[in-house]
Specification:
The protein has helices at 7-11, 21-39, 64-70, 76-91, 96-115, 120-142, 151-162, 171-202; strands at 49-52, 58-61. By secondary structure, it is mainly alpha-helical. Strands 1-2 form a two-stranded antiparallel ribbon. The radius of gyration is 24 Å and the shape is flat. The termini are far apart. Keywords: ATP-binding, Chaperone, Cytoplasm, Nucleotide-binding. Belongs to the TCP-1 chaperonin family. One of its GO terms (molecular function) is ATP binding. This is Alpha subunit of chaperonin-containing T-complex.
């Protein structure tokens, strides 16, 4: 009577499994390559990229999300980074280039720490703690109440966010439009709240 095959034998599909430092280095190299592609397109003065697909269609853009969508990425770690950028684009609509560059730098730093015999779990815990402390510092020292800013400052914030998008060339018009719309909604909400409060006081 033959013994049942082990889980390793059941999962074997003709390939080979490799682990260790060489694989970590390959992952970091792949992720860094993706980050380097979009790095020069970061910010309002970022450079445009010209992308040509298999049938010769040309796309010129400096939007990180668009660049990563058009890339043909095969490496698993690099694919994860592209998916991360796509999620950022879906959730926030901006910051895809920043997310990719930060993730690549975190991975490079983590790889150096692993080489120094620090366990990955400890590195992850350290990153999470650093995230909490960074958010706390930003909240306490770097944030300014919107009421303290003039309209011009808020328009400039909106303009910066639009500078890397397709409407970047008409960002003056659209930033003014967006700020006016948000302020109108805010004023309307304030009126509704005051109306509700006055009715409650009359009851």
């Amino acid at each position: 009577m033959s013994s049942a095959p082990s889980s390793a034998e059941l999962l074997h599909v003709g390939g080979e499994r490799t682990t260790g430092e060489s694989i970590r280095t390959q992952n970091v190299t792949a992720v860094t390559a993706i980050a380097n592609i979009v790095k020069s397109s970061l910010g309002p003065v970022g450079l445009d990229k010209m992308l040509v697909d298999d049938i010769g269609d040309v796309t010129v853009t400096n939007d990180g999300a668009t660049i990563l969508k058009l890339l043909e990425v095969e490496h698993p770690a690099a694919k994860v980074l592209c998916e991360l950028a796509d999620l950022q684009d879906q959730e926030v609509g901006d910051g895809t280039t920043s997310v990719v560059i930060l993730a690549a730098e975190f991975l490079k730093g983590a790889n150096e720490l692993v080489r120094q015999k620090i366990h990955p779990t400890s590195i992850i815990s350290g990153y999470r703690l650093a995230c909490k402390e960074a958010c706390k510092y930003i909240q306490e020292h770097l944030t300014i109440n919107v009421d303290e800013l003039g309209k011009e400052s808020i328009v400039n914030v909106a303009k910066t966010s639009m500078s890397s998008k397709l409407i970047g060339q008409v960002s003056d018009f659209f930033s003014e439009l967006v700020v006016n719309a948000v302020m109108a909604v805010n004023e309307q909400e304030t009126r509704v709240k005051l109306s509700i409060q006055s009715r409650l006081l009359m009851c």
